[in-house]
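Tokens in:
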């Protein structure tokens, strides 16, 4: 039994992170402290200064634990990681989990490409962004390809040069075909240099060039070409006009302000790169136990910049965040350069922060009802399901389904929902290996064993290497397993979990005679559910998604098997020789009738391979004749 009074006496006067647990052992709050002894004891001391929300949180604490660190900075980093992993209900939480796109120029290659990227890696390539609109990034990349004729293929050049014919882009004059030697490395490098200049916001040169080409084409009565240049000119101007706010300074900075009410806050961020506003974004936050703007901004900055690879040199803030000094040290360590945080008091800087605050207030007023509806549909629905089952808070759900046609190509699907929303990056497909015929129970057992055995092996490997668990991989286990069926499927899951010594709640999604969800099967009891509730709608979505994902995978495997060529069954005949044979003889019938000498003359074939093809068709013909004779007897 955890005795809070006794454990408080044992707290060290050292920096660290503390975790508060409720009676279900759910982590409900994570905090950091310069002195764990002083900070944690404050929660349990009688005081009139505590808000109602903090009083409510303290009343739910059943136990606490703590992790000692060497410094307050280390405590801040650990706090950020733990909040992101556990998402405690009483922490001020950033609702949005967005991955911003980048434009990647692969300058590490001899013939670089311009690509769309979701993450910025520490490699030798150049990244531009982050941008707030994936659509705008794709439009910009398309424009770059048209302007500078940059290749889009995945060939490794110059290694793969000349191996295939030039692609369609070459024929429509959007690529100079470096894969065929159509442009030298030096000339191509000049095009890439212009691309980098364009992405850095220097549009004047390309605008002047396009205007000159348009006038020249028009003077030469080449109106089709003139229209093409005019359209390109319009596209470049459209990109250039997106830079609405400029500054005399070319520093990269983010301008941050918020608007709040009792329960929620909206943080508005203006992204300024090289003095130009490249975009803006708003973020919804649950205020939880935060008491003022400084605490909310502190929570936002720590959570947002822990998840984005790009860090600006300056942050212009509406109010100085709580722990601003240690946050700046942390950001500086992450960037490798000094990061400044300022609260503008006058002039243009103050006006821009006020503009961000007004935008945040507008979003908060407009989106309030929308936010509540979405939360009811997702997190609220998940809480409803956990209440029906009588278990603690459920964040991550995994659902499984099996698909086959009379046992043919049996497959399993695993879909994942977090906070009531599908997490498609964590979906998994399983091709059944050990089960023959239509045995859904045995197939499900195989799928679950593979899923959780793989997860346990990954955990062990990572622990041995001193690496933390990788979020999104098989190491992340669910808070609840949902099986597409009743008692039989649930019992299979429970057997697997017991065999692997895992404790995860398992429920079945039970259907009626019309194949509609009617209830949940949990701990040998069928629990009826309200068919008009958001929880019911969420269960139906999960069940349909697991079924859809399995069916699609099964359909793709059937499609692949139907295009299987008879030539694939001949030993020694791979993809290259199969293509060469079909190119030479045009049909299987012609290959069947060919002699060994004719087969051996096909490029890529040798005498032994030709004999194997010849013997294969003669053996097949003999077997067919034998079978026909047997049927006639």
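Residues out:
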């Amino acid at each position: 039994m955890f005795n809070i009074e006794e454990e408080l006496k044992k707290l060290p006067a050292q920096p660290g992170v503390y975790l508060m647990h409720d009676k279900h052992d759910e982590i409900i709050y994570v905090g950091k402290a310069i002195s764990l002894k002083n900070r944690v004891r404050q929660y349990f001391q009688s005081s009139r200064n505590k808000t109602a929300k903090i009083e409510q949180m303290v009343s739910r604490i059943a136990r606490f634990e703590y992790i000692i660190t060497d410094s307050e900075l280390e405590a801040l980093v650990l706090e950020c990681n733990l909040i992101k992993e556990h998402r405690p209900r009483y922490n001020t939480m950033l609702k949005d989990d967005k991955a911003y796109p980048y434009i990647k120029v692969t300058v590490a290659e001899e013939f670089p490409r311009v690509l769309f990227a979701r993450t910025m890696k520490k490699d030798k390539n150049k990244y531009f962004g982050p941008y707030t609109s994936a659509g705008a990034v794709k439009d910009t990349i398309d424009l770059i390809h048209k302007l500078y004729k940059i290749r889009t293929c995945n060939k490794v050049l110059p290694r793969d040069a000349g191996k295939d014919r030039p692609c369609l882009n070459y024929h429509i004059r959007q690529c100079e075909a470096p894969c065929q030697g159509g442009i030298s490395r030096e000339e191509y490098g000049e095009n890439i240099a212009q691309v980098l200049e364009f992405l850095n916001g220097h549009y004047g040169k390309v605008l002047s060039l396009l205007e000159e080409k348009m006038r020249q084409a028009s003077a030469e009565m080449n109106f089709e070409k003139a229209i093409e240049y005019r359209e390109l000119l319009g596209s470049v101007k459209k990109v250039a006009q997106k830079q609405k706010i400029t500054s005399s300074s070319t520093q990269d900075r983010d301008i941050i302000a918020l608007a709040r009410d009792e329960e929620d806050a909206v943080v508005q961020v203006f992204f300024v790169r090289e003095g130009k506003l490249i975009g803006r974004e708003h973020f919804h936050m649950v205020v939880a136990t935060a008491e003022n703007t400084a605490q909310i901004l502190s929570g936002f900055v720590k959570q947002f910049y822990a998840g984005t690879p790009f860090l600006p040199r300056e942050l212009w803030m509406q109010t100085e965040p709580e722990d601003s000094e240690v946050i700046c040290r942390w950001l500086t360590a992450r960037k490798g350069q000094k990061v400044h945080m300022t609260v503008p008091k006058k002039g243009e800087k103050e006006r821009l922060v006020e503009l961000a605050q007004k935008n945040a207030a507008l979003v908060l007023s407009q989106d309030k009802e929308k936010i509540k509806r979405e939360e009811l549909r997702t997190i609220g629905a998940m809480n409803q399901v956990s209440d029906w089952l009588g278990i603690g808070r459920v964040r991550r759900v995994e659902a499984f389904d099996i698909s086959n046609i009379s046992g043919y190509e049996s497959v399993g699907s695993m879909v994942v929902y977090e906070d009531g929303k599908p997490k498609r990056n964590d979906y998994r497909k399983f091709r059944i290996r050990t089960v023959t015929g239509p045995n859904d129970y045995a197939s499900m057992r195989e799928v679950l064993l593979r899923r959780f055995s793989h997860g346990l092996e990954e955990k062990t490997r990572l622990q041995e290497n001193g690496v933390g668990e990788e979020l999104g991989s098989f190491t992340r286990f669910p808070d609840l397993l949902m099986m597409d069926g009743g008692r039989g499927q649930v019992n299979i899951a429970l057997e697997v979990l017991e065999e692997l010594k895992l404790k995860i709640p398992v429920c079945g999604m039970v259907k009626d005679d019309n194949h509609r969800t009617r209830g949940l099967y949990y701990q040998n009891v069928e629990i009826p559910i309200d068919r008009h509730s958001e929880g019911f709608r969420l269960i139906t979505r999960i069940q349909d998604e697991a079924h859809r994902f399995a069916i699609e995978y099964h359909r793709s495997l059937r499609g692949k098997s139907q295009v299987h060529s008879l030539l694939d069954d001949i030993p020694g005949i791979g993809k290259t020789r199969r293509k060469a044979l079909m190119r030479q003889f045009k049909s299987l019938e012609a290959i069947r009738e060919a002699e060994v000498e004719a087969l051996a003359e096909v490029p890529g074939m040798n005498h032994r391979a030709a004999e194997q093809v010849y013997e294969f068709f003669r053996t097949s013909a003999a077997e067919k004749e034998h079978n026909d004779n047997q049927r006639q007897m």
